[in-house]
Specification:
The strands form 4 sheets. The protein has a 6-stranded antiparallel beta sheet with strand order 11-10-13-8-9-12, with no helix packed on it. Strands 17-16-15-14-18-19 form a 6-stranded parallel beta sheet, sandwiched between helices. A 5-stranded mixed beta sheet has the order 2-1-7-3-5. The protein folds into 3 domains: about 1-90, Ubiquitin-like (UB roll), CATH 3.10.20; about 100-190, Translation factors (Elongation Factor Tu (Ef-tu), domain 3); about 200-340, Rossmann fold, CATH 3.40.50.80. About 40% of the residues are buried. α6 packs parallel to α7. By secondary structure, the protein is of the alpha/beta class. Helices cover about 20% and strands about 30% of the residues. The chain is globular and about 60 Å long. InterPro entries: 2Fe-2S_ferredoxin-like_sf, 2Fe-2S_ferredoxin-type, 2Fe2S_fd_BS, Beta-grasp_dom_sf, Cbr1-like_FAD-bd_dom, FAD-bd_FR_type, Flavoprot_Pyr_Nucl_cyt_Rdtase, FNR_nucleotide-bd. Keywords: 2Fe-2S, Iron, Iron-sulfur, Metal-binding. It comes from Comamonas piscis. GO terms for molecular function: 2 iron, 2 sulfur cluster binding; oxidoreductase activity.
């Protein structure tokens, strides 16, 4: 049996069979719903089901969908199956180019910390690509594989900056990247993603990152430097120890260029001499904000942090449609183990 799905924002409609996901049906019929991972882990294809019924094939909520969101009618298009005609609401994406594959040249390569690379790439002079702060690119590897990394700086000519965690045994970070030098060439595809600043919200903002989830947040905040209309910003960054924090001087300098800026590093395994916050970013935010009903929330990093943070923020009154997230879905088991070790 087939059902009809109508997308409110674009007034497009398409047919979906009972045994296929909303995203698969849309893609098959040329309707470009936003998406990234396609297996329920990133949340990019999050939609509000305004009318109709849906279910998930295995009866379980996907990783990137919380109980609170589900109860309010939200679903992930890549996993949801229609059980009736649907009317869905999905905000259209940023004003950026279609994803395009180009060659980029290594311009800088060094370590922020013993575990995190700084990689700067120069795009071709005539690349003509538009992207917005918060989006990511794919580095294309031989054999059709790729690795995804958020761009850590706002658009600034040809140069793109990345923050890349070194993964023991990783094909890219412990293999190809470890042997690269300035002048080498990589195939990249960009832009991707729907994590970006929503100026239309115009309310105080809370940003939370774990690990290199700092990268897209850095790009967004740097794009707001000197903006007289920028609302107050609170930035919480979760790492394991003091040695894992980097670019602290740059973060400190933002305070003089943003209307109102607060930075709170939160360490899960600090030394005895650490006088700052301990634990996890989501808990620190919950402790500091009794009421988040008039805040926009931006979350980036560990899928577990994002899931926990969404639940806690909802308890503090945050509107679910004002919580924006970019969940780092890892390419291999070694990377997943590294992330879980850092934030557990």
């Amino acid at each position: 049996m087939n059902y009809r799905v109508q997308w409110l924002q674009t007034q497009q409609s398409f047919e979906v069979a009972a045994d296929e996901s909303v995203l698969d049906a849309a893609t098959r019929q040329g309707v470009a719903l936003p998406h990234d991972c396609t297996f329920g882990g990133c949340g990019t294809c999050r939609m509000k089901v305004e009318e109709g019924a849906f279910a998930y094939a295995d009866g379980e909520l996907p990783l990137a969908m919380g109980e609170e969101e589900h109860a309010q009618g939200y679903a992930l298009a890549c996993q949801a199956r229609a059980q009736s005609d649907l009317v869905i609401s999905i905000a259209t994406g940023p004003d950026s180019s279609s994803a395009t594959r180009v060659q980029a040249t290594v311009a800088e390569l060094h370590m922020h910390t013993p575990d995190i690379y700084h990689l700067a790439l120069d795009l071709p002079e005539d690349h003509g690509l538009r992207y917005v702060p918060g989006q990511y690119l794919n580095i294309c590897l031989p054999g059709g594989e790729h690795r995804s990394f958020s761009m850590a700086t706002p658009p600034q000519g040809r140069r793109i900056s990345l923050q890349i965690r070194k993964i023991a045994g990783g094909r890219f970070t412990d293999g190809l990247l470890a042997t690269m030098a300035v002048g080498d060439v990589l195939d990249v595809e960009l832009p991707h993603g729907s994590f970006y600043y929503r100026a239309q919200d115009y309310q105080p903002m809370v940003f939370a990152a774990t690990g290199t989830g700092f990268a897209p947040i850095k790009a967004i905040l740097e794009s707001l430097l000197g903006d007289a209309d920028c609302p107050p910003i609170h930035f919480y960054w979760g790492m394991r120890s003091e040695a894992d924090l980097y670019l602290l001087d740059e973060i400190a300098a933002w305070a003089g260029q943003l209307y109102e800026f607060t930075f709170v590093p939160v360490l899960s395994r600090p030394s005895e001499g650490w006088t700052g916050r301990r634990g996890y970013v989501q808990d620190a935010i919950a402790e500091d904000f009794e009421d988040l009903s008039e805040h926009s929330i931006y979350l980036c990093g560990s899928p577990h942090m994002i899931a926990d943070a969404k639940a806690l923020m909802a308890l503090s009154g945050a509107a679910l449609d004002k919580i924006y997230s970019d969940s780092f879905i890892f390419q291999n088991e070694a990377a997943a183990v590294a992330e879980l070790s850092e934030h557990s």
